[in-house]
Amino acid sequence: MPTPAALEAIIKKSGISASIETSLQLPGDASTRKYYRIFVKTGGGALNTLVLMSMEPFEDRGMDVPFLAVQRHLAAAGVDVPSVLAADPAGGLILLEDLGDATMLKKLQESSGPDLEKHLYEKAIDALVQLQLNASPQKKSGTLEAFTLSFDVEKLLWEIRFTIEHFLEKYLKRTITADDRQTLETGFGDICSVLATQPTVLAHRDYHSRNIMILPPARLVMIDFQDARLGPAQYDLASLLRDSYYQLDEDRIDRLIDYYITKREAGTGSRIDGADFRRIFDLMSVQRNFKAIGSFASFVNLRNNHSYLKFVGNTFENIRRTLQKYPEYARLREVLSHYYYF
């Protein structure tokens, strides 16, 4: 927890005239960052809340640290992101508006019918299309570091090998035969090569139901965007619709892909081949979900954090069901299923 003096200093730096009443540590995300809700009383006696992000000091990057740089870029593009009130690079502190606790996942879990599910996902797709059209490099020039990073073959395959190491070998303790390892390399190598040839947009990189906040009456806010980089348009859509944390049925996914295509075509004036788009969406889903499993396993191996293991089952099923559509990847599916189930 930051010291009282550090809290007072950053609140003063924000220009807010208020006294600190108390603070509460909030549940963290998958990173090592910590978050605190700060309760403050203004001069008029009203009680308000702010959120403090605590991370490693970033005075070497200053206001160009990725979270702040991407936040400014997205805000300038009209994407709804949390307002930054002040930053203390030397202390590793960023003061943010308080968005509350209602993630999209929480709203979905509270839903009693399909109408709210449809509404929330369509709004999330609207926001995603806005990001892709207005914040990608062809529309927004500048020196954003994310524009120099992309999902090339090397990056995509590195994530695959990371999962093989951390999930199959270290967590499940499987011994992979030479033939099966070659099947994994060949199958995923083909998938990653196809994905790396796709046109790119700015990708949030972790766009799913836990990283979208819902505020009344109709505000949807993206968070956790600091790892943005260039990737296929299907990257964030696959992350959203084939989510590790919330399972949509395939009919719903198909209709939401149609919705995305309609919105994207209206925004660009260019026609999208639906069949080709869906194939890349599926391949991106396989790579993205396999990468997620590697992350969940690495949290155990490197941090002794077991809290994400409960999502592995859903995530693997996303991969298995998707690969069933493609006979050319039958052997890859068989090998993955063998080491996962047996």
How many distinct beta strands? 9
The main sheet orders its strands as 1-2-3-5-4
CATH architecture title of the largest domain: Alpha-Beta Complex
Q: How many distinct domains?
A: 2
Question: Shape from CA axes?
Answer: globular
Q: In this structure, how is the largest beta sheet organized?
A: 5 strands, antiparallel
- CATH class placement of the largest domain: Alpha Beta
Q: CATH homologous superfamily of the largest domain - what is it? A: Aminoglycoside phosphotransferase (APH), C-terminal lobe
Low-confidence stretches: none
Give the % helix: 40-55%
Ends distance: 44 Å
Q: Count up the helices.
A: 11
CATH topology of the largest domain: Aminoglycoside 3'-phosphotransferase, Chain: A, domain 2
Radius of gyration: 21 Å
- The residue-averaged pLDDT reads 95
* Beta-strand content estimate: 15-25%
* Class derived from helix and strand content: alpha+beta
Q: What is the H-and-E element order? A: HEEEHEEHHHHEEEEHHHHH
What does this structure look like?
The chain is of the alpha+beta class. It folds into two domains: 4-97, Phosphorylase Kinase, domain 1; 104-341, Aminoglycoside phosphotransferase (APH), C-terminal lobe (Aminoglycoside 3'-phosphotransferase, Chain: A, domain 2, Alpha-Beta Complex), CATH 3.90.1200. It is 49% helix and 15% strand. The protein is built from eleven helices and nine strands. The protein has helices spanning 4-14, 66-76, 104-110, 114-134, 153-171, 178-196, 234-241, 250-268, 274-303, 312-323, 330-341; strands spanning 18-26, 34-42, 47-54, 84-88, 93-97, 200-203, 212-215, 219-222, 229-232. The strands form three sheets. The protein has a five-stranded antiparallel β-sheet with strand order 1-2-3-5-4, with helices on one face. A two-stranded antiparallel ribbon has the order 6-9. Strands 7-8 form a two-stranded antiparallel sheet. Strand 2 (34-42) and strand 3 (47-54) form a beta hairpin. Helix 9 (274-303) packs antiparallel against helix 10 (312-323). The longest helix is centred in the last third of the chain and has 30 residues, at 274-303. The chain is globular. The chain starts with a helix and ends with a helix. The model has no long low-confidence stretch (mean pLDDT 95).
